[in-house]
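Researcher: We're teaching a course module on how sequence relates to structure. For the next exercise, students receive a sequence and then see the predicted structure as tokens, so they can try to spot secondary structure elements on their own. Here is the exercise chain.
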Amino acid sequence: MPINFKLAGDAVQYILDDADVKCVFVDAGSLHLSGASIPIVNFDADYEAFLDPGEFADVEVTSDQVSMQLYT
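Model: And here is the predicted structure for the students to work with:
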């Protein structure tokens, strides 16, 4: 779920805890905003690993399916 990068660290931590987030994807500048108890993927350090798309299977999506749920 996208989280506003302009939020203070305590607000980010509240959202991570409240939403029961299991993994965080961040850039190096945002590493300090995520909790140490949650696995972190650093896009700056781990970016090359994401360039290889690997196997991909098409998924049929219908208009009644949620595609993104923002934290509100």
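Model: If you want an answer key for the exercise: The longest strand covers residues 24-26. Residues 9-18 form the longest helix (10 residues).
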